[in-house]
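Ticket closed. Logging final result for DUF72 domain-containing protein.
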Amino acid sequence: MRLHVGCAQWTHPAWPQPSRDKLASYATWVNAVEGNTTFYGIPARSSVENWAAQTPPDFRFVMKLPQTITHERRLSAIAAEFYAFAAAVEPLGLRNHAMWVQLPASFAPGDLGTLAAFLRGAPREHRYAVEVRHRAFFDDPRVAQQLESILAETGAEWVPFDTGTLFGRPASSLAERDAWMKKPRVARRAVALTGFPIVRYIGRDSVDETVEGWTYLVELVHTWLTEGRSPTIFLHTPDNAEALNLARLFHSTLRQRLPLLEPLPEPVSLEPPTLF
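Final structure:
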């Protein structure tokens, strides 16, 4: 029984980490990370080899496709760019848990044919996880069903970005106000399409509010685990200072209810961070 948890990054000024090998240090705290840096360009293969060397074989990277593919070309005529990216991240092996197809808010229901063509033609040796932000996918059940049908047909997962807790009350800090401006305000989803659901959860500056807001997610992940699924949950806060601790807390909350859940590694750092 495996639950993977992680953050949007593997280094942060608030986290006690060595000056070198920050990813290796991060990987002793949690067992997954969002590959956001690849959105800005294809990484050097040598960099990816270093990422692999710093992480255990069962660590999960969810690697975001470069913006050239998803935002500029909008999934059309991108074979060369896709294969270049796939070749660059090949050293990760099975650590490359999923190719993350994050689509812009302008990618609308009328573009579903393009998404379907991309997923149907994409190499089967990779797993695919799609994040949409256009409101129609969340507000119109008919449109949501169309997207789910395409994803189910191609074995891809829908990645929800749960901002419900963030938008639960007005922003009260600069970090929260910045998140309010940048994060999508969409309805929560509680449906897994594959055996490997992925959820991105963003809380508040307040640890208590963040934990209170994820109560439903604890129940949902508990159900997924008992069904035999292997979810990956990414924990965010507006400034991410406490995200590393929160990811471990989320995992421990599930392990209290499911003692057979495989534990996270024992942290190795300069000094332990605190939630308080």
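Strands lie at 4-7, 32-35, 60-64, 96-102, 128-131, 157-158, 161-162, 198-202, 232-236. No further action required.
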